[in-house]
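Sequence in, structure out.
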Amino acid sequence: MDHTVLDVAVIGAGHAGLGISACLKQHALNHIVFERGRVGETWRTQRWNSFVMNTANKTNLLPGQKYTGNAPDAFCTAREFAASLAEYAAENRLPVLENTKVISVEKPEGDRFFSITVSENGTEKKYLSKQVVVASGCQNEKKIPDFAQNISSGILQLHTGEYRHAQQLPEGAALVVGSAQSGTQIAEDLILAGKKVYLATSMVARVPRRYRGKDIVDWLLMLGFFDLKTEDVTDPKVFAAKVPLLSGVGELGHTLSLQSLAKMGVTILGKMTDADPHNAFLSPGAQEHVKFGDGFSQKAKAMVDEFIEKKQITAPSPEVEIADMPDLTASCASSATSLNFKEHNITSIIWTTGFNGDFSYLKFPVFDSNGSPVHKNGLSEIKGLYFLGLPWLRKRGSGMVLGINDDAPFITQEILTAQHGK
């Protein structure tokens, strides 16, 4: 047992954990950041080779950080972003303990402090802390539908976090299940590598990469789109909506749509709902998914147009971009309700169906029926226990790297208030 009582224990050294560590250090709070692997572990180990960020370099900044490079509007790779996190930790001399997995966080009734048990390079240790920030993220465990186990063992199955490049896959076609950011980008990666690709889609919005002379994210930041507060959302469906499709691949990134993938040769299918050893079963909703994406893009552009007019901003006329042109009849989509693996020579399936957070080390009743942390603006019902880095923690932008610049100082202030007994 380390008998020194920490002011704060931070779990996770991704952008969220490092961001709040910098804020805590600024206020001279004694703390340690526990990291199961290396700084930015998820970025190092759960991304494919061609992965790049969807937000430009100038926006991927942590508290106190300024962009000093010569490519503010370019998009860095996962490896480059992980390196920037390590550099941030070193420059700020943040107290990170790498290769230290948190096994449990407890606070027995009547105890003053949280007890944190860790495995530090294989050796079990215990720490005491007045307060705890959970910044381990929500991408720790693969999420794959149960029916995946029905599929023949002769077909290679990989999850997003395991896919690296097309050469991993056997000869033959690939089925990508899921059409959010990862699914569409991996489908593009495979088709460019010469693979035949089938994409099982779902209802995902999309936006143009650039519009009227700016990156769409720049416009959305100016509009305050990411500042919508969680507590002001009246429709729960908003929380479940996936991040609109974008790609940072290329000098200034590019627009990604289901119809643009179809033009490249990807077969656009409905949502995969079940499987047996030899078939994937699909809903016939692919056309609606295409139309939904097109509709969202139109709304986003209309918002920008209205903002430009209202603020009397000088901006070029809308560009004509093939990937962003609506497919009015959704002719790019297939209405097939099943897919026979042998008939279509499908030898591999990539599940881009997301991740769940692993919070099993928290020995408190702080979860809802789905196993998700219960909190309000990052504050749990357990006094002194906070969450950080989760989507919609406080705002729409909380799930983005740039969101930590609002959320970390907020949680830090809550910690200071509790520290001083106010």
